[in-house]
Design brief:
Bound molecules: flavin mononucleotide, iron/sulfur cluster, FE2/S2 (inorganic) cluster
CATH class of chain B: Alpha Beta
Strand content of chain A: 5-15%
CATH superfamily of chain B: Glutaredoxin
CATH class of the largest domain in chain A: Alpha Beta
Oligomer: heterodimer
Number of strands of chain B: 5
Radius of gyration of chain A: 27 Å
CATH architecture of chain B: 3-Layer(aba) Sandwich
Number of domains of chain A: 5
Largest sheet of chain B: 5 strands, mixed
Shape of chain A: globular
Order of helices and strands of chain B: HEHHEEEHE
Strand order of the largest sheet of chain A: 12-11-15-13-14
Strand content of chain B: 15-25%
Strand order of the largest sheet of chain B: 2-1-3-4-5
Largest interface: A-B, 39 and 35 residues
Distance between the termini of chain B: 46 Å
Helix content of chain B: 25-40%
Number of helices of chain A: 23
């Protein structure tokens, strides 16, 4: 039968974010509506992966017009079909509204959140059916492995990846080509390639989105890695909390086998390769490469000492190459389009793009892929739409539990591996948490340390006990019990833990404390010596608010907002707060135009 | 998969399936689907356009628009070739569709006797 062309495709986001906001129900309603109007043969519904804008989900894009609709409900579907599909009129009220200008934007490319992005790795995510190997092939998929196998030597592939300057996206930023060269150089009858999809950083979901939205890209990247290093078997280690990613990947593996893209004599060469999925139990330390390999082998997920490095003795003692999901996802483009094209993007030491998960006190949260070297300011203000609720920026946390907090002065910093390390943060896997002036930096440090402390596997004393001591001190400081010498103690412990822990977890766990001490030391001092939390966030420390009688002009603005009537005073006379009544809500502070109110 | 040739053949076939998602530099057919357009048989015109495009294996954007204020000439259909003026055809029957597709979209020649308006790009 002649295959027929649909006049319009409706791309419905079926990523985890949109599933939880109800895209399935909306899709069902859409199907009913299309059937009702006898449109099913003209209009095709394609379920895609994540667009990175999950906060606005459920999302649909209508082609050929490319109109972007968001926050859809099943009830919107009759109007959408009637107006958009039948009459060709854009449904204004379902478009995305720019938070600052309040304008509604019809096309995807015109939305500020997407304008400054450069979606190469995420290029297919949200724009194709991740369960269709044909669609991946239609976008040029599997061309790169075909080219590698039939036109390049393994050494040639490694040279190309080295030349492209690709560095690991899993945190450390180690040059990928060099890593492959080590594994290629190891002599063995058996080698493995492993994909690290453990993604343990709180708030990170770029690897999940890639696996859900474009699984074949990961498979192809791993195949190229296997050919380059001489492996014939691979594992993708995915956390078990990612059922949809596992399901899509499984479908992709099945299809690739059916097309002979996995198996034996691929592309008519003597290259054989197959892949397995291993679902991980979700401990943060299992993302560490040696712990991960232990976990695949069925042992407890505890790190092993290195050397020997995985490239010499990895999985089951065999030479193994391990990379992050996003690292592999970059590879097909490099091989297909060449290192030159790839290198054109990025900075001297960091090439290509990086995907970030933007969260926190920011207008547009979601996944953003940006060229390396973009400034933090551009990410936060242009893509992220600025600080939410009109509040003031205070800090941005980058790199997850191993990373650091950067202050306003560093907003013009180019985002690349080396600049970030220089200022005491790190790229990490790409978490970006934006904080405003209501955030207490000591409390932020405490949050991250609490996370790493509870995730420590317990093998090394400094990591196990040292982080516990540090956490105790931070708990004391944030509850108003801090004492002289605490800061120095924190610094000593931090240096000790960093230099004596076995794995990256311990080695980086103190970073959030050290970076906040570096840029926000005054907040620690205010807690300890002045017994106040400048952000007004540490509840135990709030003793109420006082009015400076010299600054107060008696405008009564404060008294009118106080929910418990704690403020007294006559018009044009200094007001007074009754500390017995004050519940420290802070409402009066922001109302006072004369900065007369501060913490007691 | 035995060779790059095989992959490329597969790709060509697969690209046809997703061509509706490419929006730039393609011929565009715009069908008037206002109330009177639909009443005058615009749906049938649209179906005929789709059938013709399928039959000839063309890569064309087919989209629709609301009332353009020429209700008396419905059904209406506009053709816009990349970089060219947008030509409006009116008073159409399904039999005219084939002619417009062949002459204008395939051969690039405006079908003067059916054209009712020209919009400068
Ligand atoms: C505690 C800890 C957790 C880690 N978690 C992850 C993770 O979730 N995903 C990941 O790709 N790498 C993680 N890493 C880094 C891996 O050990 C390893 O460096 C990485 O997978 C290498 O891939 P790349 O070179 O492509 O970045 C973690 C490291 C440590 C110390
Ligand atoms: S540093 Fe911490 S997490 Fe890493 S091996 Fe030692 S105890 Fe375990
Ligand atoms: S902080 Fe809240 S409760 Fe206290 S005086 Fe101000 S408005 Fe009243
Ligand atoms: S899941 Fe739909 S935009 Fe992320
Ligand atoms: S409804 Fe067709 S031109 Fe007015």
């Amino acid at each position: 039968m002649e295959q027929s062309i649909y006049r319009s495709h409706i791309l419905v986001c079926g990523g985890t974010g949109c599933v939880s906001s109800g895209c399935k129900q909306a899709q069902d309603a859409l199907k009913d509506e299309l059937a009702k109007h006898d449109l099913t043969s003209e209009i095709k519904i394609v379920e895609t992966g994540c667009h990175g804008f999950c906060e606005k989900g459920p999302i649909m894009i209508m082609y050929p017009e490319g109109v972007f609709y968001c926050e859809l409900t099943p009830e919107d579907m009759p109007e959408l079909v009637e107006e958009h599909i039948l009459k060709g009129r854009t449904v204004e009220r379902l478009l995305y509204t720019e938070p600052n200008s309040k304008k509604s934007i019809p096309s995807y490319e015109e939305i500020d959140f997407y304008k400054k992005q450069q979606r190469l790795v995420l290029g297919n995510c949200g724009h194709m059916d991740p369960e269709s190997i044909e669609e991946y092939i239609a976008t040029g998929g599997y061309e790169a492995i075909g080219k590698a196998l039939t036109e390049m030597t393994p050494e040639g592939v490694i040279e190309e990846v080295k030349d492209a300057g690709l560095r690991g996206r899993g945190g450390g930023g180690f040059p990928t080509g060099l890593k492959w060269q080590f594994a290629a150089g190891a002599k063995s009858d058996k080698k493995y390639v492993i994909c690290n999809a453990d993604e343990g950083d709180p708030g990170a979901f770029m690897d999940r989105s890639l696996l859900e939205g474009d699984p074949h890209r990961i498979i192809e990247g791993m195949m190229i890695g296997a050919y380059a290093t001489g492996a014939d078997e691979g594992y993708v280690y995915v956390r078990a909390e990612y059922p949809l990613a596992i399901e899509r990947l499984q479908k992709a593996l099945d299809d690739a086998r059916e097309y002979g893209l996995l198996g034996e004599n691929i592309f008519g060469t003597d290259f054989n390769f197959d892949l397995h999925i291993k679902a991980g139990a979700g401990a943060f330390v299992c993302g560490e490469e040696t712990a991960l390999m232990n976990s695949i082998e069925g042992k407890r997920g505890m790190p092993r000492p290195r050397p020997p490095f995985p490239a010499e003795q990895g999985l089951w003692g065999k030479p193994s190459n391990i990379n992050n999901v996003e690292s592999y996802a970059n590879v097909p483009n490099i091989i297909r389009d060449g290192a030159e094209a790839y290198k054109a993007i990025g900075t001297e030491g960091s090439k290509g793009t990086k995907v970030f998960a933007l969260t926190g006190k920011i207008n547009n949260t979601g996944l953003a892929e940006v060229p390396m070297g973009i400034t933090m300011k551009e990410i936060i203000y242009d893509i992220g739409g600025g600080i939410s609720d009109g509040n003031k920026f205070k800090a941005v946390q980058i790199g997850g539990p191993s990373g650091g907090c950067l202050p306003e002065e560093l907003l013009d910093l180019p985002v690349d591996y080396d600049s970030l390390i220089e200022v005491g943060a790190m790229m990490g896997s790409g978490g970006l948490v934006v904080m405003d002036d209501s955030t207490c930096m000591v409390d932020v440090a405490r949050f991250f340390l609490n996370f790493t402390q509870s995730e420590s596997c317990g093998k090394c004393t400094p990591c196990r006990e040292g982080t516990k001591r540090m956490l105790e001190i931070l708990n004391r400081i944030t509850s108003g019990e801090g004492k002289d010498g605490d800061i120095e103690m924190l610094e000593r412990l931090a240096e000790n833990i960093k230099s004596t822990s076995l794995c990256g977890l311990g080695q980086t766990a103190p970073n959030p404390v050290l970076s906040t001490l570096k840029y926000f030391r005054h907040e620690y001092e205010a807690h300890i010596y002045d017994e106040i939390c400048p952000a007004g966030a540490c509840e135990d420390m709030l003793k109420g608010y006082v009015i400076d009688e010299d600054a107060c002009i008696g405008c009564t603005a404060c008294a009118r907002v106080c929910p418990v009537d704690a403020i007294e005073g006559n018009v044009k006379e200094a007001h007074v707060i009754d500390l017995d009544k004050c519940i420290s809500c802070g409402a009066c502070v922001s109302k006072c135009k004369f900065d007369a109110i501060s913490q007691a | 998969m035995k060779s790059l040739e095989e992959l490329r053949k597969l790709r060509e076939k697969a690209q046809k399936d997703i061509q509706a998602r490419k929006t730039s530099n393609k011929p565009k057919v715009i069908i008037g689907m206002g109330t009177c357009g639909i009443a005058a048989g615009a749906r049938e015109i649209l179906k005929a356009v789709m059938a013709e495009i399928n039959k000839r294996n063309l890569d064309v954007i087919v989209t629709q628009t609301g009332c353009i204020g020429m209700c008396e000439k419905e059904p209406l259909l506009d053709v816009q070739m990349p970089g060219k003026d947008r030509i409006t055809y009116g008073n159409l029957t399904t039999d005219d569709v084939s002619k417009i597709v062949v002459e204008h979209i395939v051969n690039g020649k405006v079908v003067e006797d059916l054209a009712v308006a020209k919009l400068e790009d």
